[in-house]
Nucleotidyltransferase-Associated Rossmannoid Fold domain-containing protein
Amino acid sequence: MASKETFREELKETMRGEAETLYKVLDERDLQDTLVAETRILLLSSAETSATKAWLRRWGMTLADAQDTDSFLTTPTTQEYDLILFDQVEAATVNAIMAAQPRLYCVAYAPNTRLKLDYQDRINLANSPITLFTRILETARFRKVQIPQD
């Protein structure tokens, strides 16, 4: 199998001036695949039943841990995670957790609910499975840019 560089050289010859556009598309896809696979998500849920955990697995995302919000407030998980996904959690609880974690980036999934949240600079909102997938990727990308990598 040819390396990425060899592939790019062959493509450059074939496509002449249009190769750079295709390279950008391929690089964007590589970044998305990396974010999906490497972003460790902590799922906090107050829903009795939810399909969210199954969606994350189906999408190939890394679920670091899942915990109900009440237990997280008293005994937070010791697992390392990159972002929190709030699944059908009340605004007051989301705000309390975000207040206690100033460097944390989050996604709040709330179908059929309009949340009034503080900390708008660190949280993304989703109201359907489609927007949930997109908001997780956007938040992971934003986090990657905001937090220096080792």
Remarks:
- Residues 45 and 87 are 5 Å apart (CA to CA).
- The mean pLDDT is 82.
- The domain at 40-146 is CATH 3.40.50.2300 (Rossmann fold).
- Residues 19-38 form the longest helix (20 residues).
